[in-house]
């Protein structure tokens, strides 16, 4: 399942490295000597969680079906136009952001506003691609990976990551 989800992300134009880049930029000021590999590892760990896999599967399937015009109205138009008041994309991705506790909420809120790195490209309304769920999924995974780094560095050991 994990590999399938990672393939799905790639198919939709996002790599784990790009998410790790966001994590590094966000966490480096607070964690001395934090490496890209450590961030990439943290992102990998987030993908081990079944609840994360399910959120991604759901969100990306809805993005893809909307892109193909296969969703029933009025939902088709709502997702296609990324209506600001829809909010289900954020709600769903919040489930990823909080897997390592509420500490992920702050990062999620920040990423949602700042849209760094790949998130800015995903937010581009000019393209015909639908990334209504994808941008929040990227923010959710990055926020969770950042929260995990904060926790493991605090505790000084790697917790059992597999749920
Ligand atoms: Mg969105």
Please bin the fraction of helical residues: 55-70%
User: Please, how many domains?
Assistant: 1
What is the structural class? mainly alpha
Mean pLDDT: 91
Bound molecules: magnesium ion
Query: How many DSSP E strands?
Result: 0
Radius of gyration: 15 Å
Indicate the overall shape.
globular
CATH architecture name:
Orthogonal Bundle
Number of helices: 9
What would CATH call the class?
Answer: Mainly Alpha
- Regions with pLDDT < 50 over 5+ consecutive residues? none
What is the string of helix and strand elements? HHHHHHHHH
Strand content: under 5%
Oligomer state equals: single chain
The CATH superfamily is known as PgpA-like
Q: In the CATH scheme, what's the topology name? A: YutG-like
How can the largest sheet be summarized?
none
User: How far apart are the termini?
Assistant: 14 Å
Any overview of this molecule?
The protein is globular. Helix content is 65%, strand content 0%. It contains 9 helices and no strands. By secondary structure, it is an all-alpha fold. It has one domain (2-162): PgpA-like (YutG-like), CATH 1.10.3760. The longest helix is centred in the last third of the chain and has 22 residues, at 134-155. The mean pLDDT is 91. Magnesium ion (MG) binds at residues 82, 89, 132, 135-136.
């Amino acid at each position: 399942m994990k590999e399938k989800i990672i393939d799905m992300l790639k198919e939709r134009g996002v790599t784990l490295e790009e998410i790790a880049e966001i994590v590094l930029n966000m966490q480096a000021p607070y964690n001395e000597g934090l490496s890209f590999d450590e961030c990439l590892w943290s992102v990998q760990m987030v993908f081990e969680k079944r609840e994360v896999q399910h959120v991604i599967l759901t969100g990306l399937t809805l993005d893809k079906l909307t892109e193909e015009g296969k969703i029933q109205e009025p939902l088709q138009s709502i997702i296609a136009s990324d209506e600001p008041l829809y909010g289900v994309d954020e709600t769903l991705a919040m489930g990823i952001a909080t897997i390592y506790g509420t500490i992920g909420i702050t990062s999620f809120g920040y990423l949602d506003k700042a849209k760094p790195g790949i998130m800015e490209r995903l937010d581009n309304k000019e393209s015909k691609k639908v990334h209504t769920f994808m941008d929040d999924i990227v923010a959710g995974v990055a926020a969770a990976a950042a929260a995990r780094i904060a926790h493991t560095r605090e505790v000084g050991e790697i917790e059992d990551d597999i749920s």
